[in-house]
Each structure stands twice: as structure tokens, then as C-alpha cells.
Amino acid sequence: MTASTALTKLLKRRKVMKNLKRLLKKTTGIVLSAALCFSFVDFGNVFKASAESTNIVTNGSFEDGTTEGWVGRGGVETLTATTKAAHTGSYSMLVTDREKSWNGPSYDLMDKLSKGQSYTMSVYVRSVSGQSEASLSIQKTDDDGTTYTNIEYNTPINDYSWTKLSGQYTLTYNGTLSDLSVYVEASS
What we know:
12% of the residues lie in helices and 38% in strands. It is mainly β and 188 residues long. The strands form two sheets. Strands 1, 2, 4, 5, 7 and 10 form a six-stranded antiparallel β-sheet that branches. The chain has a five-stranded antiparallel β-sheet with strand order 3-6-11-8-9, with no helix packed on it. The protein is globular.
């Protein structure tokens, strides 16, 4: 690729990103890409057991026009499959109407993870407007009560590029496991 071809591509990309930025500033919330996989390689990917090479949760490309099992964690959010921006493919999930930082998308992991097994989790996120911080976390309820574990915490995100949140999680619990979900939250 010549220097002029590379420069032309860069200038086109910047123009597209500026137009996208203007469009997205009209909405508040966070956008999740088609990229949640435990070893989330794209929300069409999923959670992977560290010792295995296959995804154990299939979700997240949003290419079918739905939120594919993701629900609002606070009960006030609106989750929508959208073509306004996408990490891969044509769709992503847009989260709007949030009232608190912990309001965001959540995915039920009950009966999907095994006790004692380690998992790699990742998701691509971006802000709809401006700068923010996002976290990928686990909510778990067992005989000891409800706990929250950060997989990746308060990572800076922005409205012009996708940011990968990723980390390891090993499922442990005491007694009976009655709730297990992964969720994304953002500061604004």
C-alpha cells in the first residue's frame, strides 16, 4: 500500500467517524458491540473455558436484530439492536434510558459455567458521546449472599473507537448458587 493510499484511507475513516460521532451524540447510553465472548471474540462468540477452545455461550452478534438474551440490569434501561455502529458485522446493542451507572446490559450465566472452572470473558464497548469509564463484572448469589466481582474495572472508553474489556473469572460458590450473571456498567 502506498503512502498516498494509506493517507486517503485514513482521511475517509476520520470523516466516517466524525459523521458517526455526530449521529451518536444524539443518544445517551453505551453501545455494546457484537463482541461478548468468554474469550469473547465478538458477541457472536462467547465465554470460553480456559482449558477448552470452544465457546460455551453463543450470543452477541446481534445480527438477528435482537439483543440475544441480554436484559436491562436495573429494569429502567432500554436495550436495542441497532445498525448505528458495530464492532463487526452490521449490528450492535445500544443501551439507553440509564438512570444510574450500574444500569446496563446483563446476561444470565446460570447453568452455563462450572464450579471451579476458569473462564476468559471479554466484550467490546464504546460510549455514545464523550468520555466515560466502563466495567465488566459478575453478579453472583449463593448461601453467603450476593457478591460482585470486577473482571475489568473502570476502563476509559470513548465515542470514536471500540474498547475491549477482558479478564479471567473462576466460578466459586458456597452452598447453592441461585443467581449468576455477567454485566456491563459505565460511569456516564
